[in-house]
Amino acid sequence: MDQLIGSVIETGALALLGLAGALLFRRSFSARWLVAALALNLVYQFLLTRGFGLVPTPFPQADWNWAGKLAAFAGTLGIMALPAFGLRRCGVTLSQGPHWRGALVLLAVLAGLFTWMAVSAADGPDDLETILFQWTMPGFDEEFFYRGTLLLALNEAFRGRMNVLKAPIGYGGLLSTVLFGLTHALSYSDGAVGFDAFTFAITGVPALLLLWLRERTGSLVMPVIGHNIANGMSTLI
User: Fold this and answer.
1) pTM of the predicted protein model
2) Could you report the per-residue pLDDT of 43-69, keeping only the tens digit for each?
């Protein structure tokens, strides 16, 4: 029940920010796509939490949520395959567009930064399951959803864009980034809502850079690589 309420609170926050955007960007706003984005988030959270805890995990010995991540990833791929979305429109393409070199520079800088952070806080390699999980699941599952299907829906809900160093960034992209931060920073337990501003910052700022990579290249390749380096580098050192 706590997971369900937490997901409703997150989706409610997205709805409020979406309504605020509707007032600011009336001419480029699509209500049905905002509703679609809200529904997508609830479906995603349902799959990620295995039906908000109603479905037992098929991997009881695992320390990480493999079942939920795999279910959410499969669900996201299914939605991407729908005609209203489309794999390529959601960023599932190896083509990196004409401005990929600038994006590659940022990816290299991020990789160096995360490597330095991992070395600075080195406490020895983690167990094999943790290494495998952190180098795969977060990047694929979260990037395909937040910078894939959800971003497409929110970009359709708010069509206005601003060119930021050759990346078309809009209000929809900012909303997807805020929700990503809230997902990590917001919690609900025993009737109380918790919010960790530090967690929001350290997840939201990198998410903004991953959004830029996604919009600059039109592809999820670099965001997935960057995300998995951020999560996985510290498991090796």
Assistant:
1) 0.95
2) 999 999 999 999 999 999 999 999 999
Question: Largest alpha-carbon pair distance within the chain?
Answer: 54
Nearest one of 111, 113, 129 to 121, comparing CA atoms: 113
Q: What is the per-residue pLDDT for 2?
A: 84
Q: Are 31 and 22 in contact (CB under 8 A)?
A: yes
Examine the pLDDT at 122 and tell me if it is beyond 90. no
pLDDT at 179 over 90: yes
Q: Where are the alpha helices (DSSP H) in 49-170?
A: 66-80, 100-120, 128-134, 137, 143-144, 150-157
Using CA atoms, how far apart are residues 83 and 81, in angstroms rounded to an integer?
Answer: 6
128, two tokens: 């094999």
Contacts of 30 (CB under 8 A, 6+ apart): 156, 157, 158, 159
The region, left, alpha or beta by phi > 0 then psi within -120 to 50, assigned to residue 86 is: left
- Going from the C-alpha of 81 to that of each of 85, 89, 105, 149, 225, the distances in angstroms are 7, 10, 31, 10, 22
Backbone angle region of 170, left / alpha / beta, with phi > 0 → left and psi within -120 to 50 → alpha: beta
Q: DSSP states of 146-168 as a string?
A: IIIIHHHHHHHHB--EEESSS-E
Rounded-to-integer distance, Cα 169 and Cα 65, Å: 32
